[in-house]
Every structure is written in C-alpha cells, then in structure tokens.
Amino acid sequence: MMRDRAARRHIITYAILLSVSLLLLAFSNTAQLQTLRSAVNYALAPVEEVLAGAARSVGGVFTAVAEADQLRRDNLAMRAQMGQLQQENAQLQAVKVEDARLSKLLHTQSILGHTTAPALVVRRQSTQFERVLTLDRGADAGLTRGDPVLSDGGALVGVITDVGANYANVRLLSDTRSLIIGMDSATRSTGQISGHLSSPLQMGNVPGTRKLTIGDTVVTAGDEAGSRSLLPKGLLIGSIVDVQAGPQFLVSSALVAPAADLDALEAVLVITDFNPPALPDPNAAPGPDVLPQATPRPTLKPKPSKGP
C-alpha cells in the first residue's frame, strides 16, 4: 500500500515537471518571458563582471609571474654578459699598457748609441740597506757583470753585479752601496753620487768653486772624471732638487731626484756593448765608478771549420 502511494507521487511529480517544461517551451518566445530573461541578465550582470574580472586578475597574476621570471633570467644573462665584457675590457687595457711599454722600450733602443738587451724584472729585494732587482735574462743573453742598466725611458737605474745563465742581479742607484760619478750637464761639475734608499740621491764632493743649480740635469761623467769610468758618458741620472752647500765651502753637495722610478721598474734595457773596468767585489765597501784598468768583455772564439 505504501509502495503504491510512493509510485503515484513520483508519477504525478514527473507529469507536473513535464507539463511545466512543455509550457516553458511553448512560451519561450513570448514578450513576458523575454522581459523576465532581460531582468535576470541585468540582475546577474554585476556578478558575471566580478567573476570575469576575477578570472582576468588570476590570469594576469600568472602572466605577471611568468614575465617576472623571464625578466629575472634576462637580467642574469645580461649580468653574465656584462661581467664577460668587463673582463675582456680589463684584458684589453692590460694588453694596451704592455704594448705601450714595449713601444717605449723599442723607441729608447732606437735612439740610444749602444747595443741593448731588454729584460723583465722578476724579483725585488728591498731592505734597510739594499735595493736590488733580479732580471729574467743572464749570460745566455749576453749580459755580464758591470753592464749598465737603463729604464724603459733610457735613464740609468743601476749596474749588474751578479750574472747567472738565465738571470742577473742589478744594484740600483738607490742602494746604499751604490757610488758613481755624476756630472752637472750645465756647469760640467762632477761629484760622487750615492744611494739613500727611497730618499733622493746624494751628489757630494763637488768642488766649491763650481755652482750647482736646482733643476740642472745630472748625467754620468764617463772619462771626464779623470780615469776610465765604469759607465758610459752621458747616461741620464736625474735632476738637482736641492743644493746643500755654496761656493764659500771647499766642496758643494746637492740632492738629485732619479729620472727613473726606481721602486716601480718592470722592464729595463741592459747595455751590452760597453767594456767597463773590472768591478770590485759587490759585497765589499762601495767605491766610485772609476778604476785604473779595464777588463775587456769576453768574446766567443769561432769554432774551427771541419774539413770535407
């Protein structure tokens, strides 16, 4: 009995829904239904706009995230490229400096009246008494003990005191053991020039009757010192920056600023065609660069030709 009632209710409900559906289909194009649809669409329009805006916002967020990630990758790529360009620019600058230095060396070689061999500074020894450089060339390149050493601009920087097969040690003018004969190129006054480490060179024992003037150029005296010199004549040493005594004294003295930066040498030229007198023991007490006798530069004997 209960089952029959439930079945009838289901049938009745289905019939009602079917009738309503048929009625809606029959009146779907009526003015009243069109008005109802317009009203419903008008009422739901804000909701639809909000939902559409939300969808657009969500899509915009994903788009912005994707664009930000792409910008980050682009930025990293640009930074890597910029770093590479900076390294290449630094290398080019280093090559440019090296080319300028080599060009200066070649120019100095071309204007000097001596045969020279270029060499690089590979070691510096600076103590409270010494200023010594080690070069990357030695006897294999024709260097010998006593050879004058010039800067890349042609100014005297020191003398070779020790030579190996592939190295040479240079005692700089600023070394406290260094003592050479210099000459004021303007007055032709000569005096002993000694080293005082990082201070200007000292030019002493100049006859008091000779006037020394600030700004005068000082060069090596050569044989004008009265005996065979250890150094060629006319090599640039520096310029007078202070006169410490006047003509009223028996001797005058002056301070001489080296023309070369002795503490920043990187490349030098070694004069190889000058035959100086024999050097004293480099560990002995310093003396002026004049000795009574000369020791000729050793020459290689030609090998006898073999017969047929």
Structure commentary:
By secondary structure, the protein is α+β, with helices and mostly antiparallel strands. It folds into two domains: 1-111; 116-271, Beta Barrel (Thrombin, subunit H), CATH 2.40.10. Helix content is 34%, strand content 25%. It is built from two helices and twelve strands, in the order ααββββββββββββ. The strands form two sheets. A six-stranded antiparallel beta barrel has the order 1-2-5-4-3-12. Strand 1 (116-126) and strand 2 form a beta hairpin. The radius of gyration is 48 Å and the shape is rod-shaped.
Brief description of this entry?
With 308 residues, the chain is α+β, with helices and mostly antiparallel strands. It is built from two helices and twelve strands.
